[in-house]
Write a structure and sequence with these properties.
single chain; alpha/beta; 2 domains; 7-stranded mixed β-sheet; binds nicotinamide-adenine-dinucleotide; binds FE2/S2 (inorganic) cluster
Length: 295
């Protein structure tokens, strides 16, 4: 069992929990995720790690209520325990494998949209701890949904907050902020955009105009996180990939976002899953040959 040490609600229906999980905390890196189950009958919930404290053995997760499983998780309190908390899973961010000297030469921009700010934070922190500066665009619907601002400011060189309704910081979506910053004379070599699928799609279209390499996280399409269910199948550069096994991060300019969004809507119903099985044949449900699942 994994004890919840603290629980807060930084915005409506968005929760932060610090969970004691020493083995995960000892081994995890930015970009990786965990899978939890509230109890033995619970659905699996894959969540990208937001922060870790190796000494204390703690992991911070941030989640939004989107269904029954996350609603049940939100009802737990400090002192309660989670039955399963498995990880770290997935590949670490590309940064963790890039020579530090190379990273120091680059101008790095993070685009953090809404709850997607949670997986951005450990990357910004990891880079600063390795002497690498970065800038962050922190986007939210309105002032009440801006999360992790103080935490980002502690590690980023600059944080540009933007709200869709202009109630705090700059006004407009994160893509407008990218255009505005570049018009103001900023230059970026690399962008990491994490948030809703539609945001990542439009960020990629925006950065493509400027020739800025862009990494995205496909965590939102994961279901079981094990390579077995087939939910997170996507096309990257014309090749079949599974977000939970081959990612979750990919080169955003190579991701077919329209296919991802259409497929994940189809995957939500039994009829849609049957259709996908028929259409994709043995490239469905792990048959890609990469993830160890059954065809
Ligand atoms: P949201 O709807 O408030 O959007 C966050 C920001 O994304 C907005 O403020 C806006 O600036 C930008 N955005 C939205 N639509 C856009 C568009 N069409 N063009 C350009 N920018 C756009 O986000 P939320 O409700 O906090 O987030 C929930 C979503 O985040 C869920 O869909 C969840 O799956 C996703 N999420 C993704 C990850 C990941 O790893 N990619 C992690 C956690 C959550
Ligand atoms: Fe099920 Fe990736 S989440 S195969």
């Amino acid at each position: 069992m994994y004890q919840i040490l603290t629980k807060t609600e930084p915005a409506a229906n968005i929760f932060t929990m610090v969970v004691h999980a020493p083995r995960v905390a000892k081994n995890c890196l930015p970009g990786q995720f965990i899978i939890l189950r509230v109890d033995e009958e619970g659905e699996r919930i894959p969540l990208t790690i937001c922060d870790y404290d190796r000494e204390a053995g703690n992991i911070t997760i941030v989640f939004q209520i989107v269904g029954a499983a996350s609603l049940r998780l939100s009802k737990l309190n400090a002192g309660d325990s989670i039955a399963d908390f498995v990880g770290p899973l997935g590949k670490p961010s590309e940064f963790c494998e890039t020579p530090i000297e190379e990273l120091r030469q680059k101008s790095i921009l993070f685009v953090a949209g809404g709850v997607g700010s949670a997986p951005v934070y450990p990357q910004v922190k990891w880079l600063k701890e390795h002497g690498v500066d970065s800038e962050v665009i922190l986007g939210a619907k309105n002032k009440d949904f801006v999360i992790l601002e103080e935490e980002m400011r502690a590690y980023a060189k600059e944080v540009h907050v933007t709200t869709d309704d202009g109630s705090y910081g700059r006004s407009g979506m994160v893509t407008k902020c990218i255009d505005d910053l570049i018009a103001e004379g900023k230059h970026y070599d690399v962008c990491v955009a994490i948030g809703p699928m539609i945001m990542m799609k439009f960020c990629c279209l925006t950065t493509k105009k400027y020739g800025i390499k862009t990494v995205v996280s496909m965590n939102p399409i994961m279901v079981d996180g094990t390579g077995m269910c087939g939910a997170c199948r996507l096309m990257v550069d014309g090749k079949v990939k599974f977000a939970c096994v081959d990612g979750p991060e990919f080169d955003g300019h190579l991701v077919d976002f329209d296919q991802v969004m259409k497929r994940s809507a189809q995957y939500k119903t039994a009829e849609g899953r049957a259709y996908l099985r028929e259409q994709e044949g043995n490239t469905h449900h792990g048959g890609c040959g990469n993830c160890g699942g059954e065809a």
